[in-house]
Amino acid sequence: MLSRQFVREHPDEVRRALETKGADVDLDRILTIDEEWRELKARGDDLRQERNEISSRIGELKQAGKEEEAQDAIERSSELKAELAEIEERAEELETELERALLTLPNIPVEEAPIGDDESDNVERRRENFEPTRRLPEDIVPHYELGEQLDILDFERGAKVAGGGFYFTKGEGARLEHALIQFMLDHHREQGYEDVFPPIPVNSLALEGTGQFPNFDRDDVYRLGGENDAPYDDSDLWLLPTAEVPVTNMYRDEILLDEDLPLKHQAYTPNFRREAGEHGTETRGIVRSHQFNKVELVNFTRPEDSPERFDELVEEAASVLDALGLPYRVLEMCTGDMGFTQAKKYDLEVWAPANDEPDGPERGGRWLEVSSVSNFHDFQARRAGIQYRPERHESAEYVHTLNGSGVAIPRTVVAILEYYQNDDGTVEVPEVLQPYMGTDVIDGSEPVGESAVGAGRRE
Asked: Which of 303, 332, 417, 454 could form a disulfide with 143 if both were Cys (CB 3.0 to 4.6 A apart)?
């Protein structure tokens, strides 16, 4: 959230942010509301001062025996009270309208952010782990086909119990997910992260605090009871779309101490979104689904430390892909693809070699986003009321918040199944995961049931 003072004093900068982020917000209306509100506040202050002066005079006039003048003063005081009540009521209405309008303004991108309209204007900063790459099979089987052949992914039974966009991982597939989660938690703990396991349902104020509401499409979030388009308040509960929401809001309306910072939390959670099926080619497999696992990294820092912390956070997330030996690239998001809440954002995209798309390195393949690392400056902290006190005798200031996935599990599974695939259809387990899985190869299991006969079951 931008402060009303910033919006008032830097309207041109706000207009540029609206333009470069493609946000359709009536800034002139917001400035008009703010101007009327300030005029009413000033008028109210003048009326209170006049009423206080008259109130003190009434006693003096009565004491001096000037009853007629005292009665005039009483009548004027009543008029001022009525006028002040009217002004305060209108000012309160404008205050509410202004606060809601300010929530619709996007964050200001950092000055060095690339200007652009969409993902085609993002800037690739570097590629890692492509030289040398492991020897890949001549014909790489896509993860969704390989997963069914090995009987470690089950889409049909997932749809049977929960509908499209849900799936089962089985046997070594489930063990691979568990291994990734535990490896990431152990890995980031060594980087100074404290574990938290947050509530899975979150209320509307939490979603508003991190910036998902009111701008996030509520049709993408699962509401627990009631219609999605019904008015919301802090008693509503929604399944979290990302652990960023509960972990950031842990400290809502609190004042941290200087010695608390930087504060680094990591949280494994399942995440829930309705967005599956909206992106054409991504409807097959586990690239885009309604439920997915993720380890989220959330940071709270002093304002002056957040640029350096952002760079470190990018490396902390990328170190997971380095440890797994997976090829990936780092992209800097342009203003149009950055998002509503971000001041700066980098994406980490892992290479999935089985998908034949032209932008992959040498052999085709495609890029899958597995982490978005964001610096929000004080944008979320203002919305959620998260402050810190530099010194115990000083005024509180807003912290800066940052987060990044460390990393999204399903797409990492996709990359492992395709990049570590062997000629015989088995999958090599990355070395760092072998102690967690107790094996160095995924060779699948026997399908069960009559439907498996003649469809891959080994007799």
From this structure: 417
DSSP 365: B
Residue showing tokens 């967690």: 436
Task: Quick: pLDDT tens for 284-307.
Answer: 899 999 999 999 999 999 999 999
175 is catalytic: no
Cα 130 to Cα 136: distance, rounded to the nearest angstrom: 12
Q: Is 372 a catalytic residue?
A: yes
Active site residue 329: no
CB count within 10 Å of CB 451 equals 10
332-363 burial: b if 16+ Cβ within 10 Å, else e = bbbbbbbbebbbbbbbbbbbbbbbeeeebeee
Whole-number pLDDT of residue 459: 46
pLDDT tens for each residue of 60-100: 777 677 777 777 788 888 888 899 999 999 999 999 999 99
Is 411 one of the catalytic residues? yes
Catalytic residue among 77, 204, 289, 372: 372
Read off φ and ψ for residue 456, nearest 5 degrees. Answer: 115, -15
Residue with tokens 């820092």: 301
218, 223, 288, 309: the active-site residue: 288
- Full-model pTM: 0.90
- What is the CA angle 133-129-406, rounded to 5? 130
Q: Which CATH architecture is the domain 4-102 placed in?
A: Orthogonal Bundle (1.10)
Beta strands in 173-244 (DSSP E): 194-195, 201-203, 237-239
Whether domain 119-452 has CATH 3.30.930.10: yes
Could you report the per-residue pLDDT of 163-178, keeping only the tens digit for each? 999 999 999 999 999 9
Distance from C-alpha of 293 to C-alpha of 282, rounded to nearest angstrom: 17
* Residue 2 CB neighbour total at 10 angstroms: 23
User: Backbone phi, then psi, for 325, in 5-degree steps?
Assistant: 70, 25
Q: What is the residue extent of each domain of the chain?
A: 4-102, 119-452
